[in-house]
Amino acid sequence: MQACVYLLVVAASFHPPAAAAVQEPERSGYSLAESGFAGRFEDLLLNRLELEQDGDVLRGRLLFGREYEIEGSERDGAVVGTARTPDSEEPFSAEWQEDRLQIVMGEQLLWLRRSVEPLAVDLGAPRADPERLWTIAVYMGADNDLEVGGLIDLMEMAEGLPEKGVDVIVLVDRAKEHWTDEAGDWTDSAVFRIRRGGDPELIGEIGEPDMTDPRTLAGFVSAVYRSFPAAHHAALFWDHGGGWQGLIADEDVPGREGTSLMDLQSLRLGLHAGMLHSRVLKLDLVAFDACLMAHLEVAVGLADLAEVLVASQALVAGAGFPYDRVLPLFAGDRPVREIAADIVSTFGAAYEGEHDPEATLFAIDLARVGPMAALLDALAVQCLPVLDAQWPAFARALYYGECYEPRTERTLSSAVGSLDLVDLLRRLRTGTPSFPAAAEADELQQAVAAAVIAAHTGEQRRLSHGLSVYGPHKTDQMRLDYLLNWLGGANHWTELLMRVHAAAAADPQPVELRELRVLDHDGNPAASVPQFGGCSLHATVTGNGIVQVQQWDSTRDGAHWLVLRKNFVVDPYFVLRVREAAAEDVDLVMPQFVDGENRLQSELTGMNFAVSNGELQVLATLDMATPSSQAPFVARARLHEPGAAAPKPIAIEFHRALWLVQAVYDLTPAADGRVEPRRIQPAADALVGVLLETLEDDGTTGILENEAIPWKDGPRLVLSMDEPGRNRADLIAETMDGRRYHAACEYELAANPDLERWSQSWRAYDPAALTGIWRQSLAVGPERFQATGGRAEFLGPHSWGPGCFSVRSRFPAGGGEEEVVQIWVLEQLGVPSLRIVMPTVEGRTLCWYGPAVIGTGESGRFIAMKALNFGGLIWRWEQDGGG
Hints:
This protein is α+β, with helices and mostly antiparallel strands.
């Protein structure tokens, strides 16, 4: 309190120096600068200025020791006028210095910040508690489809609240379509004090609020911290999140239709006003139980309001934070960094237990984020001069960067465009010839690493490093409202993005897909394509700024073409770049199509995946088009739940290596048509109908739902053969600005008797015979194999289950020998197959898979596999000594 008195004395007696001397240094890379003079402005002592615009005149009052009437007009970016009391009149001026309004009145100087009048929230008189260490204000926007999750989390909070030292106060705004079984039928809002092991205590009501209004946030925060004074303060925001665009989706705002979203400026304004009115100088912790909020654009706006940020770069599952395990971490007087780190590790353990490979959570030291904006700005400045020549490399990095929206959603014009900052920098460095900002990129990566206090990344999110940045990968996703963001409006990064997209849009040259033809392994035109491969599709694509080419494989079914799989097509040097890349950089390798002519080739394997629940197998359109060893295979489906009036649209993600379901997302649109995928767990008695996309001869597309099968423990993928007959391969090339070009090639698929022989070979399969050393060779011609020097040693069954084995593999490397431990999965559902799964030290999972045969040859027992995802190579292992 002594410091506050000192500030008041200084403000009252300070004689302003020359104007140049009071200028604050400009903050490079982001700006919290304000503009406009109408509104409310305050400081920590609640000195207050209120101004209203009346034509060219600004009128209002200033409360600064006494009340002054203010009248003035705007001149050269400042308000100039007079301040009057009944017995005095003094010259008055107000001018913005970044986010502080400098007021000079006579010989007095005052600094205020823009504020709002907090909504009146009465939580009663202050409740002193000498043992209270933490007060946690939870702003829960449950006036939407997340309502049920919010009410469940209230119960979790009661389970986890420590016996003493912590108060958790929650503002809950509920939805009209309420959950009545246990929570009652109220649909507006309530303020609860969480009680350990019991029902929450109702301590306040504010009717039907607008949760996106900064006045609501300010009123709640100030009331909580005034009524429950503590040594430490945390604010937790619970709801939908949209990264740099904002958070809190309120579907029922009085007097307004549709869904409202709180922008980041309102978040900062409301939080800061609430802190002013409760005399809280700085929060210890701000946490977001919401999707996509670990953004550099979010962090720079909160850096002066809080010490530590806890947030996720990725989507957060509907279950959110495990509050029964998180709240106990606040017990005892521990540093906030330790608590934040423990929140991250506790969250990670919970989601690892739920086998969620896409979950992320980070604790960020907000004191370290300011320099990142300056470094990003410096990097952009270095890159701008080379964009005219190098923009395709920047386009590729934006297109393939670690993104946090499902593949089917990230191409929509409404996509948020969140990309991991470090992954984007690494792609720019590896994919841009003579990258001009290597030093800035290195320093920025180091700055991010230094700011991350703790991190959890699921297996599918190993390319996430803690902070995202806006990086739209298509031209129609470039949002002009990004200029209103603190970083977007003051950083050359925005200019870089705009110029990349402008260059892509300005290129008028159309893309040509031509010379589509099917050739056999000798390069001759093929009359038919055998199942199991041996023939390949060849094509030439010509154009500029091509970022992606997909291949859709379809089979004829009556009047339709059924799309079975979508895969990415690589440039001629892609495999070479993968082989030359360091292990930690493999997933940074992107297809690179040169401007001009590109000759493409892909094998036609005649093999596919089916979706199986162990008893029934059905076909689905499988999206395999992400060029990453960690990206899942995705199938769209409809979930038929018992008692539900209509099926629910879902996306099923299958683990690329294990072929098991790793996540299911509900794709039901919100009231405004927006789709924010929510992770769900289907019940065992639900039915799932996977979807097949169709292509008509006239180019139109459609959807068919396959036979619905019981969910049981969750379906899995099994290898299957394409049906002989008319088949088709479609190539779709896409440019940075969203132009798509299409060409197709039909061919006849012929049955391959070898596949039946391979399938029959497993009838006499004896797992006990898989012992000892097996030496590897590679097919170099029909029935001809060449030793590779590699060998595999079966160590015994693996805990994954039947057909899974631990294998130690050794192979020549760098003049010596490298040893790795793998899991071999011999799968007999569908077409018998072998999967070689190799966990890496970076936490990723690599996999090679394909149909397999087991038998006995001249040298003894052998296993052979055709690696479908590795250029169709055929590997063979022979057991030492013939077994």
